[in-house]
Amino acid sequence: MSARRPSIALITMAVILVAAAAVVRLVVAPNATKLPADTDQTVHYAGETTMLDAKALRSGDTAHVLRSGIPVTADRRVRVTSTRGDTAMIEDTTTVHAGEQSLPSSKTYAIDRTSRKGAPPPASASAENSRGALSSAFPPDAEQDDTYTYYDATTRSIVPVRYTGTARREGRAVNVYEIRVSAPVKDPAVLEPLPTALPKKLLAGLVPALDSTSRARLTPTVLAALPDPVPLEYLGQSTLVAYVDRQTGIAVDQAVSRRTVATTSVAGAPTPLLPVSALTLEVTPESMRDLGDKATSAGRILTVLTVLAPLAMVVIAAVLLLATFMLARKRRAADEVPR
Questions:
Q1: How confident is the model at residue 60 (pLDDT cuts 50, 70, 90)?
Q2: Which domain covers residue 111, as residue numbers?
Q3: Is the pTM of this model over 0.70?
């Protein structure tokens, strides 16, 4: 009986190791991909903007209404403010710096910590209505297809996310996604500083600077029939290209283009007038390197949890079972020796 004890111990250890490998692969690894409760990340951008010169507009100086090519930088901070189960409350703040001006914009989202899609907020909290759509982050091992949607806070609309292929950034394999938005502006914070109407005389002075379609619509006869002042509405247009690390979901690089366009209704159809703001941004090289380093570090941890640790446990379990088999053979051989 005592001769069998080593075999029983080895088999027991092998079973424990296989069970541990399953726990690490199926429980520990998925938990490691959840959005951490201490997430607090800042990404820096650089680019340029076009801004409406309100003084020139009021004075009728239509040739200088738009100031273009203004260098800007931007800081985007995404941090988890609280978690409840699998739901995280996210504060997503972007501050654009143009000269001495700083223009902050902050939104709050409730997202599922695994899928990164919008989720119902806790009863005591309020958030943007982004349910089912991405807003601040992509999930690890993101799908390479067009199944995702994106919530745009400026227009409060949900739009498709288009997968366009793969690339490399900072030595990492990335999925490339493109997001395009064109919808009426609904964010009160964006609308609040914008004029709700324009004197007809000013609009007539702007017509020569408009695109050919708008010029064709705003004939002298049409202009004469418009109310004075002419009511304005605003269209939000944006394009976001995200280079998302395939393993970790970290957006290593991004290119952002946003425009807010003043429009007015002509014969029941919205007619673009001029962009009151335009912004193009790209992630700075320093931030891209930092994001690449974070993706590499997080990727190593995921590789250990999903591949190396479970594989090592299974291999050791196999060695223990082999040792058990060899011991059993030796015992049988010893029992067969004539005494």
A1: low
A2: 33-283
A3: yes
